[in-house]
Amino acid sequence: MDTSTRVHKMMRALLGIVLLVGMLNTRQVQGRKARKLNYFEYNAMNCRAHTACITQFGGVGDGTTSNTKAFQAAVAHLSQFESDGGSLLFVPAGKWLTGSFNLTSHFTLFLDTDAVLLASQVMEEWPLIDALPSYGRGRDTAGGRYASLIFGSNLTDVIITGNNGSINGQGEMWWQKFHKGELKYTRPYLIEMMYSDTLQISNLTLIDSPSWNIHPVYSSNILIQSITISAPVNSPNTDGINPDSCTNTRIEDCYIVSGDDCVAVKSGWDEYGISFGMPTKQLVIRRLTCISPTSAVIALGSEMSGGIQDVRAEDIVAINSESGVRIKTGPGRGGYVKDIYVKGFTMHTMKWAFWMTGNYGSHPDDKYDPNALPMINNINYRDMVADNVSMSARLEGISGDPFTGICISNVSISLNAKPKKVQWTCTDVAGISSQVTPRTCDLLADKGAEYATECQFPTDILPIDDVEIKTCSYYKRYI
Ligand SMILES: *[C@@H]1O[C@H](CO)[C@@H](O)[C@H](O)[C@H]1NC(C)=O
Ligand SMILES: *[C@@H]1O[C@H](CO)[C@@H](O)[C@H](O)[C@H]1NC(C)=O
Ligand SMILES: *[C@@H]1O[C@H](CO)[C@@H](O)[C@H](O)[C@H]1NC(C)=O
Ligand SMILES: *[C@@H]1O[C@H](CO)[C@@H](O)[C@H](O)[C@H]1NC(C)=O
Ligand SMILES: *[C@@H]1O[C@H](CO)[C@@H](O)[C@H](O)[C@H]1NC(C)=O
Ligand SMILES: *[C@@H]1O[C@H](CO)[C@@H](O)[C@H](O)[C@H]1NC(C)=O
Q1: The whole model's pTM is what?
Q2: Considering its fold, how many domains does the chain have in total?
Q3: Whose CA is nearest to atom 9 of ligand 6?
Q4: Is residue 269 assigned to a domain?
């Protein structure tokens, strides 16, 4: 080999190495780019040590393959990490058809952007569970009920969140069965957590639930944030968020359009709720926007037999809704609704700005005690503005059992083109008012301007407001 050939060969070898190194470099850069793209942060009460993706369990996001078994297998597998740093199940973009599945403790279900959990329409995908003990029967039918799409019982530290992924209940089938009287059991909810502690449900969109959307029951320390809920305004019982016999709950930054109450606070039904005896207390609702043409923005009851105490609602916007805050109860319910505080409420287009009902019927059976009378006391409403209203207030207590301690101050209501002649009707209620237009009824006599800030709003902080939110990160290895 002469020198020039040797040099040539060396040059070629060098060039090869340079090219190879270059290629490796590009790959590294691409890798880094991919890692950057596949890496994101999210906020949660707890981060998790172990992660998995639904595709690792045979999940197929094509909208037609059933993923019920994949979800069940994934949760069963991840439940082994309950006491080892917890786990996260990642659901990527796609349409993930599924029936009901259970969650586990120290667990996060994460629905990425454009991930849709699509509720199965196959009845066999919905196992039956017992009626709630505080209700004695299902809400739609006597007897049992279908387990919710996402269900959990006796759990600790459960997070359902995402980059605004969604859960579509495909409720139409259920609404039709309900209207035709074809249901054998009570319709499922989208999310129900029972007997559980430390729950976070956030950054999700919930669409067309068969019935209620979010139902924490017999649970405590619950954070519900940045949830969008939508269902047709004529769909039956598609309540937004229903804290039921729960302690220390915070609902904030939610937008709800539905066919029933946007938030309905509950605690069991007549004799069953009375004997179960578990109230809903320490509830904060903030920055809620609600559209509910046939129901309330916030309902207290009608199932309130375990009691409702210490509810604080502020910065609420109602659009085209039947009523603002509504107390719903009646003889047979027992229990109480007390220490209710509402301030900063803007209402556009309402049938009633204020509504209290003491003759709500609807009993689980004929074994209820008509002498079990509810106690309604210390109800405070202040700093409200409403426009395009038909009737300012319809306040109906119970004869021989008046609703007392009602305080309404600094409220300005303007009426629609054809308002009711009598703007305030009050029976069996007692309390005061100040700076309210139109003029209130005699039972809530105006005390004058010096009482304008009379209606209380607590200044202390509930434990759920002190909960620490961590920044967690996730790297998508599987998509
Ligand atoms: C979730 O919602 C909160 C509050 O609106 C917001 O700060 C956050 O960026 C959202 N996304 C995630 C992934 O946490
Ligand atoms: C889900 O949990 C309920 C209540 O604990 C239980 O009855 C049911 O069998 C569980 N379902 C599955 C599929 O594990
Ligand atoms: C769940 O908790 C409730 C209330 O503490 C208890 O009665 C029930 O037996 C528990 N269920 C299971 C399956 O552990
Ligand atoms: C989440 O998605 C819904 C519907 O897709 C949208 O209306 C809503 O504005 C989104 N929320 C956020 C915080 O991006
Ligand atoms: C009355 O309510 C409005 C909001 O509707 C509020 O801006 C104002 O500060 C309140 N006035 C008093 C005296 O609290
Ligand atoms: C006022 O309310 C009526 C229904 O009572 C509605 O038809 C109308 O559009 C509303 N007007 C405005 C300005 O919102």
Answers
A1: 0.92
A2: 1
A3: 349
A4: yes
